[in-house]
Amino acid sequence: IKGSTVLKEEVMKYLSEDGKKYIDLYVGFPDSAVDRIVPPVEKCKDILKVRVEEFNEWIVDKTQFKGEVPVINGMILTDNLMAFVERKLFTLNTGHAITAYLGVLKGYKTIKESIEDIEIRKIVLEAMQESGEVLINRYSFDRKKHEKYIQKILSRFENPYLIDEVVRVGREPLRKLSYNDRLIKPLRGTLEYNTKNENLLLGIAAALSYRNSEDIQAVELEKRLQSEDIKSVFEDITGLNNNEIEEKVIKNYLEIRELIK
Fold first, then answer.
1. CB-based contacts of 12, cutoff 8 Å, min separation 6
2. Phi, then psi, of 242 in degrees rounded to 5
3. Which pTM value belongs to this model?
4. What local confidence, expressed as pLDDT, does residue 162 receive?
5. Which of 16, 21, 208, 229 to pair with 105, CA 20 to 30 A apart?
6. Parallel, antiparallel, or unpaired for β 57-61 and 32-35?
7. pLDDT of 42
């Protein structure tokens, strides 16, 4: 998020005062939001070979250009980039992660297999609708258009030509459970607007249950949950301090652990 702004900050560290003035006058660093699923190409050592889905969206902050804004095929301009950053984060990323974590629990290998499970699909759909209520409240998104966007996301998860493994999508659970990422940030929005969050809480509990011996963060998460108080681990990872939310997540988590014993 805001990758171009981060790049500008790093570039500015190495410039003279005159160089900084030049940058401020003539060089734009427009931030953008890119929405496209790019799974790895299996059985291929060439890192330049990629497989991408047909769907793509590239939204750029038009206020950060200097001079005339170029016309580039596929570039959608906006003066409110964060609305689209959060739309993607709260919908694609949230739904993708919950699909992966629930899929792992049921023994599925791919996102397609997972989302075709009726139980998983229902939870994922309703989680995206819960995060969607936050977006509708925050940015006045059109409800019908956003529901169509959610349905489009579900169809993308079902793409038979994308072999997208749940371990790829679920990797680095500590990052995905952090304060401003795809699970906790929309949850915080539901608290802000006092809207439903039951399925988001299920997804978060599933993320806490993610186990993968080849994922450093998953191993660390498992060790901490085995040796420390669950409540303190949850608060430390997520940055949340809400007793009601913590109790619900912990209850879901313990039920999941009991089911998979």
1. 20, 23
2. -140, 105
3. 0.91
4. 86
5. 229
6. antiparallel
7. 78
